[in-house]
Design brief:
Elements (H helix, E strand, L loop, with lengths): L2 E5 L3 H12 L3 E5 L3 H20 L5 H10 E4 L2 H5 L4 E4 L5 H14 L5 E4 L6 H5 L8 E5 L9 E6 L5 H13 L3 E6 L6 H17 L5 H12 L5 H8 L1 H15 L7 H8 L22
Parallel strand pairs: 1-2, 1-4, 2-3, 4-5, 5-6, 7-8
Antiparallel strand pairs: 6-7
Helix pairs in contact: 1-2, 2-3, 8-10, 8-11, 11-12
Length: 287
């Protein structure tokens, strides 16, 4: 395993590319938007610099990671030699299917195709390719370089060899993994979406402030992060898409909070936009 290609230079794509590079892999980060790619390069370099300064990376690995990271807007050039492709585009099934159909034609026959979806069906995505046995979901968590878990979701035709392969990649990135049989929302997203949605409804109802709701969950239930700050970190637009998908597939208990929909309409997407349930600076963060 030499090359990983990451498709999508958003929050998750940048994190997966960074983590793959510091784990020793050659990495192509692909996005159709050249401006977004340039922004991703700046942010990843800032993360690398901070990681070196704070002692999380030795100088040799820092230099190697910078050399291994390549930024390419042409999907064919980015993916034709990849051993593993990890798709990290928006949580829209039609968009994911479009990407996977293209990858199926571009990638070498033995390449594994993974989706970083947090809710959607790897079976449905894999069925759009000629290699459904080599399609799997690898659900990373944000921030990728800090979070320890990768959920590995097996589609209906995903082979044992594919599952073991992506488990070994996760392990090489110093991640723990859990294997999940496909069902909408898997394990973590089903739980997170319910908890976060209820927190938003409580905030809307005036039960407590965002700060006190998060503090209660962190100190009372021992969660490392409150549900509202976690939603801000994930992205409120992303959370809304997840909730809409789960509402359509699992029913009424996943109906999105009206407050979430209102924030997204206002352009308050959370940390990435600088404003959500909290206000944020734009300073970068190292490991």
């Amino acid at each position: 395993m030499k090359q990983i290609t990451v498709v999508g230079a958003g929050v998750m794509g940048k994190g997966i590319a960074y983590t793959s590079a510091v784990s020793g892999y050659k990495v192509f980060l692909n996005d159709l938007n050249d401006e977004k790619l340039a922004e991703a390069k700046t942010e990843i370099n800032a993360m690398l610099d901070l990681s070196l300064q704070h002692g999380y990376l030795i100088k040799e690995r820092y230099k190697e990671a910078k050399e291994n990271l390549l930024y390419e807007s042409d999907l064919t050039l980015a993916a034709k030699d990849a051993d593993l492709v990890i798709e990290a585009v928006l949580e829209k099934m039609d968009l994911k299917i479009k990407v996977f159909r293209a990858l199926d034609n571009i990638c070498k026959p033995e390449a594994i195709l993974a989706t970083n979806t947090s809710t959607m069906s790897p079976t449905e995505i894999g069925a759009q390719t000629k290699r459904p046995n080599q399609v799997v979901a690898m659900h990373f968590f944000n921030p990728v370089h800090k979070m320890k878990l990768v959920e590995i979701i097996r589609g209906l035709e995903t082979s044992d060899e594919t599952v073991e392969f992506v488990k070994s990649i996760a392990l090489s990135m110093k991640k723990e993994s859990v294997e999940v049989n496909e069902f909408p929302g898997f394990v973590t997203s089903r739980m997170n979406c319910l908890i976060g949605n209820e927190a938003m409804n409580m905030l809307m109802e005036g039960i407590a402030s965002a700060e006190d709701i998060d503090k209660a969950i962190k100190l009372g239930l021992n969660h490392p992060m409150g549900p509202l700050e976690l939603a801000d970190l994930v992205g409120l637009d992303t959370r809304l898409r997840n909730m809409e998908y789960l509402h359509n597939t699992l029913g009424e208990k996943y109906r999105p909070s009206p407050l979430l929909a209102k924030y997204v309409k206002a352009g308050k997407f959370g940390k990435k936009s600088g404003s959500g349930f909290y206000e944020y600076s734009t300073e970068g963060e190292g490991r």
